[in-house]
């Protein structure tokens, strides 16, 4: 057995700076210490190595509550209500939410399997199929989406903070606006955004394996807030509102069937990010099965429950305000605008407080973990989980994310467009793990830059993975161009684009498998190979517990 050891108790760096001077001295101080057990310093830090047994704290119930906690957020609410605003009836929108997420649950649990089995994150898994250096492109793709999602969810989180502050300080709504009229951000809301941003930055200092208890707390708080908000909205509307009673109202010139299909796959595409890097969450599983059925059933059911609340409150908003409001923060703030009495202020404050807490924890699990791992893997020598998460949050602020959320359609357009770059990564990873290698990873090889290593391929790049990646993009690329505003794209190509997620996954997976059959890779399974037969040959224990005198690599990253 090969054991890998990590220590988090020492606050020191990888090279002594005593003899260094000037810039080199400060560069040395930024280094994260590495060991030398044949694992490349360019490929390794404590956040990328397999999670040790004591860190595998997520059990069956943790994953069930994780998805209810993750879905029980304001962001998930707004995505669910998008179908109603697109013209679908409430039950059609609800069907899209539930079954769209069930569709994407299939690749989601498949990409999570290697993480739950070997306890390694997505960036390391990507090395197995794309190559040691070739894995950087998938990381860049996933990180780009993480930044977009972080920005979008930070706007929502900031609005929660703003509504909470508005319930206390009425003057915050009347602060002179420093933004142009065509910008959706307001000075008062910017204050909420900055406060929320600071809170999320602070959370980057907490390691994910220590947050399993937070999942239970978040789930309870958010569900209580949702039920109270739901009941309050129905009381103010004297019922469930007209949207529940009305049928579909498809915009003129659009096909009902294609609007339905479009929304169905928008819901699936909405989870393309999670389906890509589910291993970042599943790696903390006590056992692989703890992260399997709990996610396959738990995720779509949880989204269905939250969609129910979102759609009904959206319907009630039509009666309360005279127009449909798909953002629960606007609904709560509207309550204050209608009546700024003590009871309303108290009710809005506590609901907004619960929403704020839930959104901050959503930022941790949906964005900080992915950002920390992905960015760390791009430059392990200098970037650990904390630094990677903070870098992502700084960029997410810099892109002015409020411009992405002007309308529900603008929001979902960004979600849908990027799935063509992620679905092909998903397909290659699934094909490599389940069909090419039958679940057998050479763990040491995933951290080695040796030219004879299992995953070195051709100068660190696996051309088969890239050929499959681009093969999956080609069929839906014309539709993508139409999505971003290019004129003259045939209607058939635009409609094929709706199926970008399953097309990308299936095409890239099939092409990758075919190329590996034609040009076999090292470590490829053969007839009779046991599925995940190498599991147990590699483990990650404390140095003092390493069996049989196994060599260890010491890693410390207490440095921020």
Automatic annotation (TrEMBL):
Its main location: membrane. It is found in: Membrane. It holds the Pfam family Transp_cyt_pur. The chain crosses the membrane at residues 58-79, 91-110, 116-136, 148-169, 189-206, 213-235, 255-275, 296-321, 348-372, 384-404, 416-436, 466-484, 496-518. Keywords: Membrane, Transmembrane, Transmembrane helix. One of its GO terms (cellular component) is plasma membrane. InterPro entries: NCS1, Pur-cyt_permease, Uracil/uridine/allantoin_perm. It is a multi-pass membrane protein. GO terms for molecular function: nucleobase transmembrane transporter activity. Coiled coil: none annotated. Belongs to the purine-cytosine permease (2.A.39) family. This is NCS1 nucleoside transporter family. It comes from Melanomma pulvis-pyrius CBS 109.77.
């Amino acid at each position: 057995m090969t054991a890998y050891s990590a220590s988090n108790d020492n606050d020191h760096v990888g090279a002594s700076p005593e003899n260094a001077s000037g810039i080199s001295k400060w560069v040395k101080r930024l280094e994260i210490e590495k060991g030398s057990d044949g694992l490349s310093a360019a490929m390794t830090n404590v956040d990328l190595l397999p999670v040790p047994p004591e860190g595998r704290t997520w059990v069956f119930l943790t994953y069930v509550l994780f998805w209810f906690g993750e879905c029980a957020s304001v962001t998930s609410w707004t995505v669910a209500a998008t179908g109603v605003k697109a013209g679908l009836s409430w039950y059609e929108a609800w069907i899209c939410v539930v079954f769209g997420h069930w569709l994407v649950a299939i690749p989601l649990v498949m990409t999570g399997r290697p993480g739950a089995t070997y306890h390694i994150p997505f960036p390391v898994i990507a090395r197995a199929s794309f190559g040691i250096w070739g894995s950087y492109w998938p990381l860049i793709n996933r990180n780009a989406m993480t930044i977009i999602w972080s920005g979008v969810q930070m706007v929502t989180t900031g609005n929660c903070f703003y509504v909470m502050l508005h319930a206390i300080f009425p003057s915050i709504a009347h602060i002179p606006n420093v933004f142009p009229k065509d910008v959706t951000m307001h000075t008062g809301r910017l204050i909420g955004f900055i406060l929320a941003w600071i809170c999320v930055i602070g959370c980057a200092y907490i390691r994910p394996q220590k947050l399993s208890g937070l999942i239970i707390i978040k789930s309870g708080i958010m569900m209580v807030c949702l039920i109270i908000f739901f009941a309050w909205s129905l009381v103010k509307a004297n019922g469930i509102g007209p949207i529940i009673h009305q049928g579909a109202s498809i915009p003129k010139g659009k096909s009902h069937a294609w609007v339905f299909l479009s929304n169905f796959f928008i819901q699936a595409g909405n989870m393309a990010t999670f389906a890509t890097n589910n291993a970042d969450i599943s790696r903390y599983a006590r056992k692989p099965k703890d992260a399997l059925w709990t996610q396959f059933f738990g995720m779509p059911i949880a989204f269905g429950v939250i969609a129910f609340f979102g759609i009904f409150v959206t319907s009630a908003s039509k009666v309360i305000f005279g127009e449909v409001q798909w953002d629960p923060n606007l609904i709560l703030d509207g309550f204050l605008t209608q009546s700024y009495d003590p009871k309303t202020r108290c009710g809005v404050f506590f609901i907004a407080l619960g929403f704020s807490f839930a959104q901050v924890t959503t930022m941790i699990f949906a964005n900080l973990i992915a950002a920390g791992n992905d960015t760390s893997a791009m430059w392990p020598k200098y970037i650990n989980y904390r630094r990677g998460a903070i870098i992502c949050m700084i960029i997410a602020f810099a892109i002015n994310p409020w411009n992405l959320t002007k309308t529900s359609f603008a929001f979902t357009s960004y979600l849908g467009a990027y799935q063509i770059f992620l679905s092909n990564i998903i397909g290659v990873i699934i094909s490599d793990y389940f069909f090419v290698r039958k679940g057998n990873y050479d763990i040491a090889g995933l951290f080695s830059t040796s030219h004879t290593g299992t995953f070195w391929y051709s100068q660190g790049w696996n051309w088969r993975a890239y050929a499959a990646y681009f093969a999956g993009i080609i069929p839906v690329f014309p539709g993508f161009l139409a999505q971003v505003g290019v004129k003259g794209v045939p209607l058939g190509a635009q409609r094929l684009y709706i199926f970008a997620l399953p097309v990308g996954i299936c095409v890239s997976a099939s092409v990758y498998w075919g190329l590996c059959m034609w040009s076999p890779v090292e470590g490829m399974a053969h007839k009779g190979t046991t599925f995940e037969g190498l599991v147990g040959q590699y483990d990650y224990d404390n140095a003092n517990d390493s069996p049989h005198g196994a060599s260890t690599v010491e890693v410390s990253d207490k440095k921020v």
